[in-house]
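Before going further, learn to read the protein records used in this course. The integers have meaning only within a learned vocabulary of local backbone shapes. To see the layout at work, look at the sequence and tokens printed below.
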Amino acid sequence: MPVIQRIKKASTRKGKKALLALEPKLIEEAKQCFLIQGRQTSEITKGIMKDLYTLKKPNVVMFQRKNDLSPFEDPTLLEKFSRAKNAPLFVFISHSKKRPHNVVLGRTFDFTLLDMIELGVDNFRRLEDFKIDKISTLIKPCLVFNGSAWEQSEDLIRLKSLLVDMFQWEKAKVIRLQGLEHVLSFTATQDSKIFLRSYRSVLKKSGEVTPRVELEEIGPSMDLTLRRTKLASEDLMTQACRKPRELRKVTKKNISRDVFGAKHGRIHMGKQEVGKLQTRKMKGLKKTPEEKKRLRMEKKKAARAMTLQEIST
């Protein structure tokens, strides 16, 4: 017998609001992320988890309990947490003799695993290790990717996309100079190593209109090594990155702009019959009574001729 799937319907106002939040939107909000730890962890991975929680607030959820799971063998539990928290991004930390200080970055599409990249951590320094003024909360970071290796390897191309998803917030239409307070720098080398550095931009007087910008390292700081990857297929990636029809840019035909920015349009008109155009009615152009009488007589003669022709045929 076929199994009949029940459609979940909300019976309360709070339930309706929760179901509406799960529905797809034309313009998505900032992506939520959840942080989860495995069977064994180290002090370094715990410090990474706490610093990521600080950087991602308030779009992050941190699980305190340890979980017996292996993402590369069975990601079912991660997909379950993703659906429960409505969070398409996740960070999994673990520590073992084979893979010490292990961090897994991943994302889901429609609550199904899409991409997952495993990284090893070396030379980690926490936020607390930098005795300097920190950035304000709810500051959108400026992401900088250094090195040509980001475009030469498929693994690094996907990792770059994953990092952009991880740290980007809502799209800003206008940016002011004082808003670029936090800078995250990712430097990739040819041997698949990534150096993560975090800076606070300081605007100082330069004697000109544009201030002089200096960067002060505020942490966290870590050296990452690329380990295992589990990437989505090209078809699934294309489906996940597809834009809604309502947001696609529609090109308008026969409209162009010149070098000065003025808009020019071209219109196409059909054949015009000048004899039937309605002109302005003037008193001097009115027909005289004699002309009107002559036109009536001509119409009567034409009608009589047509009648005689029909009778003869």
Q: What stands out?
A: The chain has a mean pLDDT of 86. The domain at 29-234 is CATH 3.40.50.10480 (Rossmann fold). The first helix runs from residue 13 to 22.
